[in-house]
Structures are given as structure tokens and as C-alpha cells.
């Protein structure tokens, strides 16, 4: 008996629909069809009148969600792929994100973004957009890496009064299995030490947490290195305290992200650690991202585009040899 | 209408005296359309998302004149508390969402508010309305919003004030269909056309459209024909509007037409209208004077947060 | 009567100025509220500047055909108190009072223009600027054995360590640098050795010596015959210590060439104001250096009591801060430990230290009798800061001191 990451997302939505009459789901193909990834399978039947098929109108889907949230509802909008949310960009960053600041009325909507690459998904079905949304004040950006977090962070996110961008990783949907969903979980805003260590800190989020752990295990086998891995869990708010505490233990930092390199989440981490933890660093803080090109289609190219356990290990080795 | 006109004339004057920073957008020429929409809606029940030339509608829907003067004159006591200005104001919890600058975006927001009311079982007899200009009908947001409202069969009233110019762009550079109302058919919604300069016609057509939406007739598109009688904003002198248009039928000032109509049909005497004008001037003056004397926001005591949640 | 300003409005979001096309009023013209009185042109449109209230034009401060920036005072209206109250308009007087407390919005613009260095709200685009201000020298950034990371620095600060302290550690980092891990390993290693806490005296001496050592120090030596001094001393009452003879000789020699005791501060050599010379006194866990005042001006017998008191108080740790300040050079007698040779280190704020070793009886060649004769010799060592003094100067000083010591009765 095991629970996949996508099972957890479905379970969380089922629980929300069951217990909170303010919640409804709006997305393309999510009703009878159950969603492109089956994240909402069976929910339209179980909760009639709560799960709607949207037209291909990402802008209007978010506008509708904003209006509904103003009226006190808690809509969850599923974007079929994170990549398509760019059509809704205006409504997300100018309507939803500014609403509380401008009017004092918070907008408790949640946007689920199936994010990240899978082999062959290509440039428009692979993007990781957390940095772009985190850039705008007024949004919360979540990036769960585990089955338990996929479940609990969606519940916690919907309970927040502010707009939440929930970046779920497509690769983890079925690849990541847990025996069960833990009852205990950390609150939003707290990062987790996934693997304790002392020689270097690797900060990652979402699917990269798993790649970082494999890199850490490899380094342990080959050189006895103890690499600490920190799972950010939420990109915004960013738990700098946990990251600094880790760098305080190890003196060395590598931030790893699947997104494009320019100004990403990893840049934010490095900037903050350099500024506030300068005296903790025994080596320059480093980052590793995808290459500075659109995400390629061919699986061979794709595999070389994003960080892998091998490339993470290389970066950590460089860091250790400073 | 009169209150909107007098107030906006005053705003224009304040702008040209250097008292207002940012933009001033007037609804001169659109008062009949806007007022009739606002008057047909029920405050406390309906939703109204006014756009940039809807002072008359706001007034008819019950927005206080102080909300307008405070927002324009930068008083921290206004509904936006200095964080947004001029026509970007609203009171979302009172059924009047605050617009963002991107045109067309409010259509789906009003639709969402109606959708939510339906979910809550509170939609019976409720109408949601917003206004657009001819230019905004070109936006993707307009298309997506109206299409979605139509598909969801929401009681949305969309009033398109075709004032023939989007800033300096004439409608020949905006769309290729004959009359904008033809789009209603494409979206599967009811369409209405009205002479925007004629108060009585507006009251009838717009009132009817609102009634039909209220009775479950689905989205209603009203296209009103008129001419913008001001610049796009008060920084613009609209010198590109040809004199022929100004002299034509739609170039008539709806306020003048309305006054004639009211007198002609015995609803008011010239004397009464003059009294209204004086009372309105007084009220506007008081609202302006009060707002000018109120404090602006203070950057040092301002709560600089964009999230309502406090993370520890 | 209050006056209300007529200001150039901001007629568009990126508009910075407008040109006056026509002024429709003159001084004395009565105006209503909301009346357009001045026609201006921006690059977008022709607009009318409008009055805020009714009044009488009292001043016109602009001209047709001229361009004025946003916020400029174009004229003034004389307005009644009632009108001010009715319209809520801000008068010149009220604005001036506010300006006394807060800066005008106009001044923010003025500050912005100061940045570009203009007076009239616009600036000339400068041609490409060639940087001609000498900046900091740029390090190559190659991390070598001496590289100390921010964390190392922080850790060293915490532990009170200096670079000298970590010179014992072999670095395993890139280029042989000492990493924080190396440091922690070293500290753990040291922890396994028996240790005791350094006393404040020890730490003070350590700090002084470390600071002194940052200079290029050199030592020159000269053997000196002590027989005359020893004879003089045998017959003297009270008996001056040998150090005191040395002190006097040193002071006299220095007073003849004060520059040699000069102290280098940047590009200046600071000369002694008085020949106050310190004497090194060994105490329990360190050294103290009380200062004997104006040694050049007092003959030997006058110094005996002062010297004895300072040494005594030094040993009993009863010296005050004043006793230790102001010395321009130091004398140390390491001969009392039986040492014949030494390279003493000057105090960090002094250029010279003169040391003397133990007297040793030895055969010395005499030209007079053309044979070896017995004599008591001690070696004099002068350590000096080579930035101020050279070997030649140091040599001359030592020779003079030796000379003076052959005539102890004149000291």
C-alpha cells in the first residue's frame, strides 16, 4: 500500500471539498475526465457542483477565481501546465497579488501549477515558474518535494487568506511514493533538513531535493563526505533561518534549482546568505541551475539541461575543494 | 449625471491647477449611459465594476463623492489609502471591485463574483455589471471573460461605451465588424444597441438589459454609441477628434439633451435644474475642500506589507 | 490678505515642463474659481492652467513664450479668508510654514537635478565617460596560502587569534590555504595538550611584542669595557645600578642626536620632546617598563632614588599608568640573567631599545703594553626600527654610549 505524490494532491482536494463548502475547483478537463494528470479523478462525481471544466481561458479562469475569492470562496484553479499560466500572468500578478495591498481585501485563491520537466515534455510543458511569481509582492509560492508535503501544504495553502501559487512537480507525480502520508508536518514558511551533514549545505526544492540526496549519497560513498540537504518547501516565504543555521554548521553552500539561471530562487538564496551569513562562509556561495536555454525536447538534451545527481556532485566537489 | 459632470469639471480644474498628481480620466459625454446603468443596479445586492469614465454610474450606485475626491487628492482616509489612485478605486466587499489598469480584466472578476454567489445559492435576482470602451473589446481578457460568462450563463451586463476613440485610436483601427453588437451573437449572448447621448433611450434600453439579466436571460451586451467629449485623460487635448464628429449627432452633449428632455417631458423646470446645479456645486466644493484638508499617507507609519498573512 | 500660489501643473505622467502660450490675465484682474487663466503647451497637448479659487491676481511671475518646469510659481492670487475656508485651498503662508518643517516636493526634484548637476530640470547627455579617478588596487583573486575566508576571520576573532597564531597550522584548502576545518582540527589537537590560561600580563606583553614586530627591526652590537664604571660604582654612595649608568649614557647620546630616537608616523618623523627613557623590569609573568623622566638633565646621583622607587613599585605591581607613559626609548639589562648576547625588541611605540649583557672578564689586547690585559667586557645591543634609523646611525650611537661609559664621573 503506497501513496504517490499525485494521490496526495487528490486526497487533499477531496478533503477540502468534503469539509469546506467555500472550496471549488476550476480547470481544464478536471471534471469527468479527472484532469490531464488525473489529479482530480473521481472528484466531480463525488462532489457534484464543485468541480468545473474551464474553457481554455487562463486569464478568465484566474479573473473568475479573484472575483469568487472577493465573495469569500476559496477556489483552486488547476493550470494544465505551469507553462500556460503565462496567459494568466496579468490576472495573477496585477489583479490577485495587488488586491490586498490596494483594497485591504485578501484574495484566498490557490493556483495549482504542474511544473518541472519530464523526458520529452519540451519547452512548453516543463517550466518552473516559482521565481517569476515569487518576484511579485503579495503572492505565496509553495514547492512541495515530498508526498506528505504535497498533501499538507495544499491544505495549509488553501487555508491561507492570501493567493497561493502551488508548484507541484510533474515528475514526482507518480515517481515519488511514500508508505503513507505523515500526520506530522511542518508549517508553511519552515524549511526541512532532509539529510544532515557537516561538510557542505545543498539547498534545493521540489524535485531537485531528490537529486541532491542522490548526489549526497554518492559523495558519501566515494569520499565519506557528509553533505547536508535542505528542502526549502516554500520559496516564498523563504526560510532563511534554517538555511543560515545549516551554513553555520557546514561553512559551504550550494543552491540547486531546476529553473533558468538568471535571477532564480537560487540567486535569491545566495544573495541572502552572502549578505546575512558572510561570516559563516568558508567558500564562496554557489548555485546550480538548468542551462540558460529553453527546456529542450529530446530526452538526451533534456537530461543534460537540468541539474542531475552527477552534476550536483561535481558542483559540490568543487565547493569542497575550495 | 449632473453631479458627475460638476465633480469632474472640478477634478479637471484641480488637475490643471497642479493639485492632482497622476492621471485624471473623465466621463464627459458618457454620463447618460453610466448613470442609467448605476441606477438600474441595486446597491448591497448587485455587483458593479466601474471603469474609467463611470463617475455618474458610481454616483448612482451609491459611491460617496468623498471616495472620489479623497482618492484623487491623495487623502489617506480614502478607500485605497494612497496605495492606488484616481479611478482605480473601489470597495470590493460592497460589490464595487477596484479596477486594474489592464482593460478587459474586470469582466472575468465580476463573472467570478457572480459565480461565487451562485455557489452559495445567493444568485437569484442578482446582476453583475461592468463597462468597457470600444478599445477594450480588442483585448484577450475581454474575449475570455465574456466567453466564460456566457458559457457559465451568468447574469452579467456588459455595457460597451463606443465613444469612437481609444485614446487617439479611432475604431477603424480597433475592429473590423460593423457594429460591436454583432459580437454578441458570436458569444451567444443578447445584444442591445442604444444612442448614448439620449438619456431617456439609455434608461429604457439599459434598464431593460439589466432586467433581463436579473430574470435569468444570461449575459447582456449593451453597445452605446456616443462621442468622448474630453481627452483620453486630462493631459490629452484630443486634438485628433475631427470637428465633423463633434458636430454630428453623437457629438451632442448628453447632459444638454437630458436637460431638454426633462423639461420637455415635464419632469423638471429650468428653475429646478438651476437649483440642482447650485446644490451640486456646493456639494462638490465641500467634498473637495474636506479631502484637501485631510492628511496624505505617511511613508514612515505605513504598513508596508502585501500579504495579509504574518509568517513568524 | 492671504495669497494663493498659481503653480505649473503636471499635465501628463512624463511631462516635466510646459511652455506659456498666452497669459489671459493681468495684475489686478479678478478671477473665479476653476477659471483657465494661462494657456500652456506640453509636447502632448495645449491646456489651460486653472485657478483653485476666486480672487484677484496680485503677481505674475512668468512670461509668454518661455518654458517652465512643473511646480514653478507662475503667479499669485490675493484671496479672502472666507474663500480660503470655503475651498480648503492651501495658501502661500501655509506652504511656507510647512516648508520650514518638511521639504517641498519641488525640492525633491531639485535634489534629483543636483544628481545630474543642472539648474533647469534637464541635463546634457554626457559623452562617454573615461574613468579617471584612481580606485582601489584590484587583487588578482587567486586564493593562495594566505587567504583567510570570512568564516576563518570570524572564528579567529572569536578565539582571539591572530594570523601569527595560526602560522603553526598546515592548510589543506586550495593553494594551501588554512580552512576552517583545519583550524578546528588544530584547536581540537591543542585541546589534548595540557594548557593554562594566559595571564593578562602575558597577553599584554604578547600584544605589544606582536605589534612591535610588524616593523623591520635590526640589531647591532658593540663590546664595551666596564672597568671604569665598576671602579666608580665601588666608590659611590649610594650605589647606582649598572643599568642607571647605561640609562644616563643613552640619554646624553640621544640628546646630542634626537632624530635617532624619532618615531615614524606615516610620512613624519616625530621627535622626542623630553628624554624620558624606560627601563625594562622583569616581573612574575612578564615585563613592565616604567619611565624615568628627563634623564638627560639629571646627573646620576639624582636618578638613584627615582630609579629605585620605580623598580620597586614595578616589582610590586604598583606602577600607575602615568609611570608607564611617554617614554622615547628603553633600556634593558639582560646581563642580570647571566646572558651575554641578546636582540631585545623595542616597545611598539618606540624606535630604539638598548640592551646590555653580563660583564665577562677576558683578555683584551692593549696597544699600550703590547700584551693581552685582563678587562671586564659586556656586549651592548641596540635594536632599532630600520625605517627610521640605519646601521650607521645605530653604530654611531653605540660608539658614543661606549665613550660616555669610559667617563662615569661625568654622568
Short description, anyone?
The complex is a heterotrimer of chains A (322), B (312) and C (411). With 322 residues, chain A is of the alpha/beta class.
Which short descriptors sum up this protein?
heterotrimer; A: 322 residues; alpha/beta; seven-stranded mixed β-sheet; five-stranded mixed β-sheet; 12 helices; 40% helix; B: 312 residues; five-stranded parallel β-sheet; two-stranded antiparallel sheet; 11 helices
Characterise this structure.
The complex is a heterotrimer of chains A (322), B (312) and C (411). The mean pLDDT of chain A is 96. With 322 residues, chain A is an alpha/beta fold. In chain A, helix 1 runs parallel beside helix 6 (147-159), helix 8 packs across helix 12 and helix 9 (240-250) crosses helix 10. Chain A is globular and about 60 Å long. Helix content of chain A is 40%, strand content 17%. Chain A has a seven-stranded mixed beta sheet, with helices on both faces. The termini of chain A are far apart. Chain B has 312 residues and is of the alpha/beta class. Chain B contains eleven helices and seven strands. In chain B, 55% of the residues are buried. Chain C is an alpha+beta fold and 411 residues long. Chain C is 30% helix and 24% strand. Chain C has eleven helices and 19 strands. Chain C has helices at residues 81-87, 92-101, 105-116, 150-159, 180-191, 200-213, 227-234, 242-256, 300-315, 321-324, 391-405; strands at 3-7, 17-23, 30-31, 36-41, 46-50, 55-60, 67-69, 73-78, 217-225, 263-265, 268-270, 277-279, 281-283, 286-288, 291-292, 329-333, 352-356, 360-366, 371-385. In chain C, strands 9, 12, 15, 16, 17, 18 and 19 form a seven-stranded mixed beta sheet that branches. In chain C, strands 1-8-6-3 form a four-stranded antiparallel beta sheet, with no helix packed on it. In chain C, helix 8 crosses helix 11 (391-405). Chain C is elongated and about 125 Å long. Mean pLDDT of chain C is 87; it is low at 110-118. The A-C interface holds A 251, 278-283, 321-322 and C 143, 149-154, 173-174, 179-181.
Amino acid at each position: 500500500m503506497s501513496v504517490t505524490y499525485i494521490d496526495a494532491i487528490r486526497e487533499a482536494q477531496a478533503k477540502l471539498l468534503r469539509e469546506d463548502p467555500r472550496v471549488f475547483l476550476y480547470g481544464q478537463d478536471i471534471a469527468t475526465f479527472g484532469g490531464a494528470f488525473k489529479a482530480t479523478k473521481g472528484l466531480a462525481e463525488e462532489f457534484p457542483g464543485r468541480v468545473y471544466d474551464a474553457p481554455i481561458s487562463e486569464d478568465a479562469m484566474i479573473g473568475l477565481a479573484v472575483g469568487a475569492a472577493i465573495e469569500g470562496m476559496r477556489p483552486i484553479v488547476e493550470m494544465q501546465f505551469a507553462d500556460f499560466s503565462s496567459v494568466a500572468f496579468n490576472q495573477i500578478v496585477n489583479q490577485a497579488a495587488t488586491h490586498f495591498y490596494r483594497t485591504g481585501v485578501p484574495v484566498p485563491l490557490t493556483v495549482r501549477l504542474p511544473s518541472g520537466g519530464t523526458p520529452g515534455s519540451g519547452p512548453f510543458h516543463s517550466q518552473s515558474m516559482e521565481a517569476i511569481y515569487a518576484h511579485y509582492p503579495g503572492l505565496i509560492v509553495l514547492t512541495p518535494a515530498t508526498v506528505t508535503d504535497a498533501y499538507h501544504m495544499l491544505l495549509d495553502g488553501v487555508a491561507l487568506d492570501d493567493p497561493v501559487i502551488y508548484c507541484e512537480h510533474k515528475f514526482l507525480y507518480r515517481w515519488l511514493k511514500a508508505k503513507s502520508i505523515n500526520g506530522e508536518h511542518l508549517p508553511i514558511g519552515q524549511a526541512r533538513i532532509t539529510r544532515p551533514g557537516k561538510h557542505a549545505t545543498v539547498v534545493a526544492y521540489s524535485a531537485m531535493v531528490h537529486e541532491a540526496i542522490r548526489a549526497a549519497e554518492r559523495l558519501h560513498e566515494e569520499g565519506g563526505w557528509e553533505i547536508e540537504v535542505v528542502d526549502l518547501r516554500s520559496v516564498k516565504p523563504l526560510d532563511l533561518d534554517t538555511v543560515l543555521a545549516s551554513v553555520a554548521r557546514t561553512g559551504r553552500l550550494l543552491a540547486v534549482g531546476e529553473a533558468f539561471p538568471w535571477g532564480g530562487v537560487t540567486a535569491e538564496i545566495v544573495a541572502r546568505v552572502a549578505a546575512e551569513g558572510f561570516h559563516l562562509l568558508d567558500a564562496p556561495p554557489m548555485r546550480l541551475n538548468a542551462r540558460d536555454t529553453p527546456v529542450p525536447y529530446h530526452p538526451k538534451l533534456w537530461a543534460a539541461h537540468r541539474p542531475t545527481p552527477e552534476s550536483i556532485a561535481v558542483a559540490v566537489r568543487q565547493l569542497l575543494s575550495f | 449625471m449632473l453631479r458627475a459632470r460638476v465633480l469632474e469639471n472640478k477634478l479637471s480644474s484641480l488637475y490643471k491647477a497642479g493639485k492632482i498628481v497622476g492621471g485624471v480620466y473623465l466621463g464627459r459625454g458618457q454620463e447618460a449611459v453610466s448613470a442609467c446603468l448605476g441606477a438600474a443596479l441595486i446597491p448591497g445586492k448587485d455587483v458593479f465594476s466601474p471603469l474609467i469614465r463611470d463617475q455618474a454610474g458610481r454616483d448612482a450606485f451609491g459611491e460617496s463623492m468623498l471616495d472620489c475626491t479623497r482618492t484623487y487628492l491623495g487623502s489617506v482616509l480614502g478607500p485605497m489609502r494612497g496605495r492606488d489612485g484616481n479611478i482605480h478605486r473601489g470597495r470590493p466587499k460592497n460589490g464595487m471591485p477596484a479596477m486594474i489598469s489592464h482593460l478587459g480584466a474586470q469582466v472575468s472578476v465580476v463573472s467570478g463574483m457572480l459565480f461565487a454567489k451562485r455557489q452559495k445559492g445567493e444568485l437569484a435576482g442578482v446582476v453583475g455589471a461592468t463597462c468597457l470602451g470600444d478599445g477594450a473589446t480588442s483585448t484577450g481578457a475581454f474575449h475570455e471573460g465574456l466567453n466564460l460568462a456566457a458559457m457559465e450563463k451568468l447574469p452579467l451586463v456588459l455595457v460597451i461605451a463606443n465613444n469612437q476613440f481609444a485614446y487617439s485610436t479611432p475604431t477603424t483601427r480597433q475592429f473590423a465588424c460593423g457594429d460591436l453588437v454583432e459580437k454578441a451573437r458570436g458569444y451567444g449572448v443578447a445584444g442591445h444597441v442604444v444612442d448614448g447621448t439620449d438619456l431617456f433611450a439609455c434608461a429604457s434600453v439599459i434598464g431593460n438589459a439589466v432586467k433581463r439579466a436579473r430574470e435569468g436571460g444570461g449575459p447582456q451586451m449593451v453597445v452605446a454609441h456616443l462621442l468622448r467629449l474630453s481627452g483620453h485623460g486630462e493631459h490629452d487635448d484630443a486634438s485628433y477628434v475631427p470637428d465633423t464628429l463633434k458636430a454630428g449627432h453623437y457629438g451632442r452633449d448628453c447632459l444638454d439633451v437630458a436637460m431638454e428632455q426633462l423639461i420637455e417631458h415635464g419632469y423638471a423646470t429650468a428653475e429646478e435644474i438651476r437649483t440642482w446645479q447650485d446644490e451640486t456645486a456646493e456639494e462638490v466644493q465641500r467634498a473637495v475642500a474636506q479631502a484637501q484638508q485631510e492628511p496624505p499617507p505617511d511613508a514612515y507609519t505605513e504598513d508596508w506589507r502585501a500579504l495579509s498573512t504574518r509568517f513568524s | 490678505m492671504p495669497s494663493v500660489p498659481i503653480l505649473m501643473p503636471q499635465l501628463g505622467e512624463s511631462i516635466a515642463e510646459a511652455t506659456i502660450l498666452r497669459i489671459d490675465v493681468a495684475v489686478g484682474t479678478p478671477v473665479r474659481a476653476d477659471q483657465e487663466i494661462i494657456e500652456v503647451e506640453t509636447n502632448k497637448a495645449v491646456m489651460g492652467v486653472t485657478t483653485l479659487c476666486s480672487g484677484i491676481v496680485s503677481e505674475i511671475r512668468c512670461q509668454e513664450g518661455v518654458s517652465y518646469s512643473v511646480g514653478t510659481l507662475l503667479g499669485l492670487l490675493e484671496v479672502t479668508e472666507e474663500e480660503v475656508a470655503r475651498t480648503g485651498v492651501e495658501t502661500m503662508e501655509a506652504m511656507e510654514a510647512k516648508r520650514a518643517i518638511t521639504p517641498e516636493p519641488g525640492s525633491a526634484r531639485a535634489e534629483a537635478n543636483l544628481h545630474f548637476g543642472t539648474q533647469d530640470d534637464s541635463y546634457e547627455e554626457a559623452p562617454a565617460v573615461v574613468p579617471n579617478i584612481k580606485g582601489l588596487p584590484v587583487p588578482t583573486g587567486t586564493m593562495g596560502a594566505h587567504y583567510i575566508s570570512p568564516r576563518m576571520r570570524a572564528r579567529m576573532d572569536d578565539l582571539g587569534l591572530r594570523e601569527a597564531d595560526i602560522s603553526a597550522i598546515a592548510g589543506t584548502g586550495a593553494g594551501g590555504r588554512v580552512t576552517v576545518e583545519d583550524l578546528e582540527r588544530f584547536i581540537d589537537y591543542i585541546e589534548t595538550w595540557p594548557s593554562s590560561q594566559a595571564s593578562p600580563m602575558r597577553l599584554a606583553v604578547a600584544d605589544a611584542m606582536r605589534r612591535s614586530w610588524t616593523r623591520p627591526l635590526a640589531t647591532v652590537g658593540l663590546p664595551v669595557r666596564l672597568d671604569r664604571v665598576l671602579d666608580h660604582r665601588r666608590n659611590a654612595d649610594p650605589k647606582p645600578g649598572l643599568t642607571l649608568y647605561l640609562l644616563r649614557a643613552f640619554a646624553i647620546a640621544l640628546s646630542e642626536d634626537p632624530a635617532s630616537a624619532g618615531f615614524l608616523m606615516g610620512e613624519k618623523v616625530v621627535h622626542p620632546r623630553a628624554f624620558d627613557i624606560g627601563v625594562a623590569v622583569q616581573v612574575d609573568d612578564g615585563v613592565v617598563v616604567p619611565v624615568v623622566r628627563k634623564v638627560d638633565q639629571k646627573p646620576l646621583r639624582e636618578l638613584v632614588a627615582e630609579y629605585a622607587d620605580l623598580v620597586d613599585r614595578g616589582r610590586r605591581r604598583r606602577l600607575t599608568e602615568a609611570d608607564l607613559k611617554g617614554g622615547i626609548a628603553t633600556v634593558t639589562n639582560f646581563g642580570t640573567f647571566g646572558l651575554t648576547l641578546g636582540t631585545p625588541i623595542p616597545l611598539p611605540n618606540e624606535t630604539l631599545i638598548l640592551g646590555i649583557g653580563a660583564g665577562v672578564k677576558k683578555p683584551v689586547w692593549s696597544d699600550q703594553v703590547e700584551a693581552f690585559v685582563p678587562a671586564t667586557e659586556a656586549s651592548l645591543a641596540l635594536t632599532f626600527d630600520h625605517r627610521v634609523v640605519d646601521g650607521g646611525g645605530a653604530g654611531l650611537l653605540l660608539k658614543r654610549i661606549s665613550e660616555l661609559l669610559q667617563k662615569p664621573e661625568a654622568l
